[in-house]
Design brief:
mainly beta, Immunoglobulin-like, 5-stranded mixed β-sheet, 4-stranded mixed β-sheet, SLH domain-containing protein, SLH_dom, Big_2
Length: about 625
């Protein structure tokens, strides 16, 4: 069968407001966590809903829809741009959007010359695009381990994921997962881009936008019938709108009121979530409700709540060495675990050296020492950490060291790159002069400057290569350089190993390793980085379905519809198990969409016309008549 992707998308499935005014409100957004951002974007004409008055916030977003949203939100539209993909044609609604995105440089196609416009975009793919657009500072990839599914994050995406999480643009779910491979939803896409562009509209003069929210604790144990108040700290302290809403994952276990008072209802576990009105930022607390000891049972014996006093507090670090500009997280543990009030405050005895926010994040300001203290609201228990701040290195973070040698009035400069950055560095300059990478040691770059110079006279800049994009079947790529050759290892995702027929790198075939079928190897000439690689994965062809005689077209799902915006489009579905090799709609060849077992075509017809559809395959052909339906929009 043919395997081309659908070139026409049904208009009512579009995420975007391509024309017309926004709805006054969506019937399925009342109380939704993203209601404020979605409605604001609808009011600006950036998104629209469906003819039935819904927005369908939890529906997946395609690659084409996402780039169209980005283009509109970030003014990346370019009517002069062109696209060259096998599955993106000039008549497609998304042609201009894809062309503009590629021209802007924040997306690219696949090695098989396709863009896959109708493929759902994952959360980690969206994170990579946002990171590339905003050129975010690198986040701490180690911080990603807080997500239960961190192992599912692609190696190619971890840097971007760390960056967007650190920036507060994306977060996890109440169950502790991030969902890197989950399709990003319509609501999530709007909120992430809203945060990335600084809010849904230009705030009035003097307005300070919310950047995050932090609960005073992320775990809580209480007994049935007792009540403990959670405290939410909205950042920054001078934010204009610090309103928040509270919710519980299971009211039968624990309830929460609009002041953050959590009450144990029955033995079990529940998640309490606080959400900011401005920006939709969230934090969660995992609540464990235990049986009340003593006074036992029924008839309300014992009554009232049980208060458990705080007996102490400790920090995960008692000393900390930092560099100016760095940040570090201190974590306080209040004892006992089931203390009723585990609220704490943070302070620094020398804010000129180091500051600390309400969540325990320490920022190094200037060289010197400072003592960070945490204090419990209940009992005034304290614990401290001594912070030593060292001067910042004058070299970029990728640089391990710089060596100078003076000879005959010139200065030879050697810049050594840290091992973890070697493969990602594209160029190094010193005082604006390009340096030369050494073949024998790719971590070393050299240049000769005129004059007798010291380190104080030098300015070193490191340019990193663009983040490579690999086929979706690739888990990671590893490089090692030896004797002016580059050994490349391509690792295939575990669930795709049996589907891969071959792998090539820069048109050179790689060899599958018998001991580890997920690993493919090839040696290429020259000292290369990941930016120099073009990886192509060829999949095995699935066997055709068995041929069965009889009816071919599924009349319960197939339709031909007319839209004022997109004309007349046919969607012809094939019954399961039927082998169809071609479909003609009013004599026009339709395109096959393998993921839906559907054929699609755009024809010249109007509402009410009767159209003949012919489906053909090894078992024969079938002819059906369809009446064009007017869907209006």
């Amino acid at each position: 069968m043919k395997s081309r992707l659908l070139a026409v998308t049904l208009v009512c499935c579009l995420l975007l407001a391509l024309a017309g005014a926004a709805y006054a409100g969506f019937s399925d957004l009342n109380g939704h966590w993203a209601q404020k951002q979605v409605q604001a974007w609808a009011d600006r004409g950036l998104v629209n809903g469906y003819p039935d008055g819904t927005f369908q916030p939890d529906k997946a977003v395609t690659r084409a829809e996402f780039v169209a949203l980005v283009n509109r939100a970030m003014n990346k539209q370019n009517p002069e741009a062109t696209a060259d993909f096998k599955d993106v044609q000039t008549g497609d609604w998304f042609y201009r959007e894809v062309a503009a995105a590629v021209k802007a440089g924040y997306v690219s196609g696949y090695e098989d010359k396709t863009f896959r416009p109708n493929q759902a975009i994952t959360r980690q793919e969206a994170a990579s695009i946002i990171d590339r657009l905003l050129q975010l500072d690198r986040g701490d990839e180690g911080a990603l381990t807080k997500f239960k599914d961190a192992a599912q994050m692609g190696s190619w995406a971890r840097g971007s994921l760390a960056a967007v999480v650190a920036k507060g643009l994306m977060g996890g779910y109440p169950d502790g997962t991030f969902g890197p491979t989950r399709s990003i939803t319509r609501a999530e896409a709007v909120v992430v881009l809203d945060r990335a562009t600084g809010g849904q509209e230009t705030p009035p003069a003097g307005t300070v936008k919310v950047t995050g929210v932090k609960l005073d604790r992320n775990t809580l144990s209480l007994t049935v019938g007792s009540t403990v108040q959670l405290e939410a700290t909205v950042s920054p302290d001078n934010a204009t709108d610090k309103n928040v809403t509270w919710s519980t994952s299971d009211e039968s276990i624990a309830t929460v009121d609009d002041q953050g008072n959590v009450k144990g209802v029955a033995v079990g576990k529940a998640t309490i979530t606080v959400t900011t009105a401005d920006g939709g930022f969230q934090d969660t607390c995992e609540v464990t409700v235990e049986r009340r000891s003593g006074g036992g049972g029924g008839g309300g014996g014992g009554g009232g709540s049980t208060t458990v006093p705080v007996t102490g507090v400790s920090l995960d670090k008692t000393s900390l060495t930092m560099t100016v500009g760095d940040t570090a997280q201190l974590t306080a543990a209040v004892t006992p675990d089931n203390a009723s009030n585990k609220s704490v405050t943070w302070s620094s005895d020398n804010t000129a050296v180091a500051t600390v926010d309400a969540g325990g994040k320490v920022t190094a300001v200037a060289p010197g020492t400072a003592t960070i203290t945490v204090k419990t609201a209940d009992g005034g228990k304290t614990a401290s950490c001594v912070v030593t701040v060292q001067p910042a290195s004058k070299w970029p973070v990728e640089v391990e060291k710089v060596q100078l040698s003076v000879l005959a009035g010139n200065t030879a400069v050697k810049v050594f790159i840290k091992s973890e950055y070697v493969s990602s560095v594209a160029a190094v300059t010193v005082n604006g002069q390009a340096m030369t990478k050494q073949t024998a040691n790719p971590a070393e770059w050299r240049a000769v400057l005129a004059g007798t110079l010291t380190e104080d006279d030098l300015t070193v800049e490191v340019n990193k290569a663009a983040t490579p994009t690999y086929p979706p079947e690739v888990d990671k790529v590893q490089l090692s350089v030896l004797a002016n050759n580059t050994a490349v290892k391509v690792f295939i995702k575990a669930d795709k190993v049996d589907q891969v027929e071959s792998v090539s790198v820069n048109n050179q075939p790689a060899t599958q390793q018998t001991a580890n079928p997920a690993e493919w190897r090839v040696v290429l000439p020259g000292s290369l980085t990941e930016a120099d690689l073009q990886v192509i994965v060829t999949l095995k062809q699935a066997p055709p379905p068995p041929v069965e005689p009889g009816q071919l077209i599924d009349m319960t799902k197939s339709n031909i519809s007319y839209s004022k915006t997109f004309g007349t489009n046919a969607y012809i579905y094939i019954l399961p198990g039927k082998d169809v090799t071609s479909v003609k709609v009013a004599g026009v060849d339709a395109s096959y969409v393998s993921s839906k077992n559907m054929w699609a075509a755009t024809i010249d017809a109007k509402a009410g016309d009767v159209i003949e559809v012919v489906a053909s395959g090894p078992a024969g052909s079938e002819t059906k008549q369809f009446t064009v339906v007017d869907i209006g929009v």
